């Protein structure tokens, strides 16, 4: 287990094995990466539900979900928020994919999505907005770190649907 003050952040590479996880979703159910074996899944990490950037990104994934699902790609969103907050986020924005809670930040850390980042010019520890495409065998097919919320989903869709 990583120490939250550790300044060396893991970076996953394409072709590597995606770290396994089992987390609680916004309905209180357990969801595991292994539940998606045999399908592609986008796993994206965001800092905080119901904030402007995270809402933009989640709504963009919602709006692109049919096209992604038609291509055999599911979507999972992960943040440190508690399941109750995620349930409100889902309801407020009619989100149509699972939102997973990682309050211990173990999964965030395993994916390199938690660590040092710049926030308003200061270096802080926090969630690094990141997106991964995990293939049918559980390998990383695409790894994007420090992504911008606006326009990010369109860029990812272009990459994964090509």
Automatic annotation (TrEMBL):
<dbReference type="GO" id="GO:0008379">
    <property type="term" value="F:thioredoxin peroxidase activity"/>
</dbReference>
<dbReference type="InterPro" id="IPR036249">
    <property type="entry name" value="Thioredoxin-like_sf"/>
</dbReference>
<dbReference type="GO" id="GO:0034599">
    <property type="term" value="P:cellular response to oxidative stress"/>
</dbReference>
<comment type="subunit">
    <text>Monomer.</text>
</comment>
<dbReference type="GO" id="GO:0045454">
    <property type="term" value="P:cell redox homeostasis"/>
</dbReference>
<dbReference type="InterPro" id="IPR013766">
    <property type="entry name" value="Thioredoxin_domain"/>
</dbReference>
<feature type="domain" description="Thioredoxin">
    <location>
        <begin position="12"/>
        <end position="162"/>
    </location>
</feature>
<keyword id="KW-1015">Disulfide bond</keyword>
<protein>
    <recommendedName>
        <fullName>thioredoxin-dependent peroxiredoxin</fullName>
        <ecNumber>1.11.1.24</ecNumber>
    </recommendedName>
</protein>
<keyword id="KW-0049">Antioxidant</keyword>
<keyword id="KW-0575">Peroxidase</keyword>
<dbReference type="InterPro" id="IPR050924">
    <property type="entry name" value="Peroxiredoxin_BCP/PrxQ"/>
</dbReference>
<dbReference type="GO" id="GO:0005737">
    <property type="term" value="C:cytoplasm"/>
</dbReference>
<feature type="active site" description="Cysteine sulfenic acid (-SOH) intermediate; for peroxidase activity">
    <location>
        <position position="54"/>
    </location>
</feature>
<keyword id="KW-0676">Redox-active center</keyword>
<comment type="similarity">
    <text>Belongs to the peroxiredoxin family. BCP/PrxQ subfamily.</text>
</comment>
<dbReference type="InterPro" id="IPR024706">
    <property type="entry name" value="Peroxiredoxin_AhpC-typ"/>
</dbReference>
<dbReference type="InterPro" id="IPR000866">
    <property type="entry name" value="AhpC/TSA"/>
</dbReference>
<keyword id="KW-0560">Oxidoreductase</keyword>
<comment type="function">
    <text>Thiol-specific peroxidase that catalyzes the reduction of hydrogen peroxide and organic hydroperoxides to water and alcohols, respectively. Plays a role in cell protection against oxidative stress by detoxifying peroxides and as sensor of hydrogen peroxide-mediated signaling events.</text>
</comment>
<dbReference type="Pfam" id="PF00578">
    <property type="entry name" value="AhpC-TSA"/>
</dbReference>
């Amino acid at each position: 287990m990583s120490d939250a003050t550790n300044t060396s952040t893991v970076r996953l590479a394409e072709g590597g094995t995606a770290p396994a996880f089992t987390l609680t979703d916004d309905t209180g159910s357990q969801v595991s990466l292994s539940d998606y074996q045999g399908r592609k899944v986008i796993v994206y990490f965001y800092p905080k539900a119901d904030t402007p950037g995270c809402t933009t990104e989640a709504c963009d994934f919602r709006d692109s979900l049919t096209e992604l699902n038609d291509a055999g790609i599911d979507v999972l969103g992960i943040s440190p928020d508690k399941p109750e907050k995620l349930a409100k986020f889902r309801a407020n924005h009619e989100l149509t994919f699972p939102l997973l809670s990682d309050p211990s930040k173990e999964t965030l850390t395993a994916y390199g999505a938690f660590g040092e980042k710049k926030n308003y010019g200061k270096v802080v520890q926090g969630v690094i907005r990141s997106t991964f495409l995990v293939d049918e065998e559980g390998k990383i097919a695409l790894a994007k770190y420090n992504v911008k919320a606006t326009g990010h989903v369109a860029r990812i869709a272009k990459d994964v649907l090509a």
